[in-house]
Write a structure and sequence with these properties.
Strand order of the largest sheet: 4-7-12-3-13
Order of helices and strands: EEHHHHEHEHEHEHEHEHEEEEHEHHHH
Pfam families: AAA_5 (PF07728)
Distance between the termini: 51 Å
Structural class: alpha/beta
Organism: Streptomyces rugosispiralis
Strand content: 5-15%
InterPro entries: AAA+_ATPase, ATPase_dyneun-rel_AAA, P-loop_NTPase
Protein name: MoxR family ATPase
Low-confidence stretches: 1-24, 70-81, 389-393
Shape: globular
Largest sheet: 5 strands, parallel
Radius of gyration: 24 Å
Length: about 400
């Protein structure tokens, strides 16, 4: 099969990639062992469950869902591990959120071979992927592209701030709200007893990390965004979760004899799950994409457990593909001129973000007139340096 007719080969199967722009692909691309192809187009004629190899023995976790059988459609009576109860499939991708990240059509260019190599290695080894690069190089969008291509549904996003803790990623517990609710109910009955365990699930919600670690049959995609903003202890705190594949919720562990199973909300809208004995163990380790702008170093023990990918600045072809995906105007001569101007300005300014180019292209192509003398001043404001509030002339 020629490079002009790229195919997906999975376990001896050949799956044509219609419409892929790959005539200039180097020999051996796509590689026969790739699952993620880097095209942004969903798998067809095959499911991820069919082609994803089993995890290495040291990355197998075997969690079982505590949800009633009716909620996930799997029998809990079979001794076959493949038939063990699991969580319901992930919700569909958030179309608006995904369109904002990826555009309305797939990119017309394939990901770099190094990117595809490392994404596939992370998938097969069940290891987190630490993605670094300058702002605007597409680090966060990689998680959405993986999810769309592999059909893994809604991306779970954990935006990191200086106040983020391991617990905030795992779950949140509104103890004050629970006490107030209990007090309001007791006041009407003249009762002064403390709240019992019956209602605790109404005040406990799993976070993005906690939801990703539920026993899903197929992995969820978890985006841990801007990790370099985190507290110094968070990378080490994550190590045990990533290695053990499980966590506990102390508030539920304490009442496990009185309430062995508690229904709690998850990070997915309008979804809940059942936590047994206060413990959660994953089944399919999530696809974890951790983004960093390279503003700090992480502990060696943390880096050793991640695969590391650095995304380069996009070239002219990739920028044109991004413009086409979001605006459909890459063939407009004004857009092509802006792409070249953007590359030159980016080199002078030490790097600009792709969304700054999209802003400029939209300003020009959304109007019927040609920009006048004031355009350069406006462009300077739109294409300001990323490390300061105002750009240099």
């Amino acid at each position: 099969m020629s490079d002009e007719e790229p195919a997906r080969r999975h376990n001896g199967r050949v799956h044509q990639d219609s419409g892929s722009a790959s005539a200039a692909l180097p020999s051996g691309i796509p590689r026969p062992w790739w699952i993620y192809q880097g095209t942004g187009r969903p798998l067809h004629d095959v499911s991820l469950e069919e082609i994803l190899p089993p995890p290495p023995p040291w990355r197998s976790f075997g969690g079982v869902s505590a949800c009633p059988v009716e909620s996930n459609g799997r029998s809990g009576a079979s001794s076959d591990a493949d038939d063990a109860p699991t969580e319901p499939p992930a919700p569909p991708e958030d179309e608006q959120d995904t369109a904002r990240r990826l555009g309305t059509t797939p990119l017309s260019v394939r990901s770099d071979p190094e990117e595809a190599d490392l994404v596939n290695a992370a998938l097969i080894l069940r290891r987190p992927l630490l993605v670094t690069g300058r702002p605007g190089t597409g680090k966060s969008t990689l998680a959405y592209r993986i999810s769309r291509e592999l059909g893994l549904g809604r991306v779970l996003r954990w935006p990191i701030t200086t106040r983020s803790t391991l617990r905030s990623g795992l779950y949140g517990y509104d103890a004050v709200g629970r006490v107030h609710a209990a007090a309001a109910g007791q006041a009407s009955e003249g009762d002064t007893h403390e709240p019992g365990p019956e209602d605790i699930g109404d005040f406990l919600q799993l976070g993005p990390l906690g939801t990703a670690m539920l026993p899903h049959r197929l992995p969820r995609v978890l985006l841990i965004d801007e990790f370099d903003k985190s507290d110094i202890d968070l990378p080490n705190d994550l190590l045990d979760i990533f290695e053990a594949g499980e966590y506990s919720i102390p508030e539920l562990v304490r009442i496990r004899r009185r309430r062995p199973a508690v229904s709690v909300l998850t990070d997915d809208p309008d979804r809940s799950t059942v936590v047994a004995s206060g413990r959660v163990r994953c089944r399919a380790f999530p696809v974890v994409v951790i983004t960093s702008n390279g503003e700090r170093e992480f502990p060696p023990a943390f880096l050793r457990r991640c695969l590391q990918l650095r995304l380069p600045d996009p070239d002219a072809d990739r920028l044109a593909a991004i413009v086409a995906a979001h605006l459909g105007r890459a063939d407009d001569p004004r857009a092509r001129e802006l792409i070249q101007m953007f590359l030159e300005r980016s080199e002078r300014e030490g790097g600009l973000a792709a969304d700054q180019l999209l802003n400029a292209v939209y300003l020009v192509t959304a109007q019927s007139h040609v920009p006048g003398p004031e355009w350069e001043e406006l462009l300077q404001a739109v294409w300001h340096r990323l490390d300061s509030a105002a750009g240099s002339p």
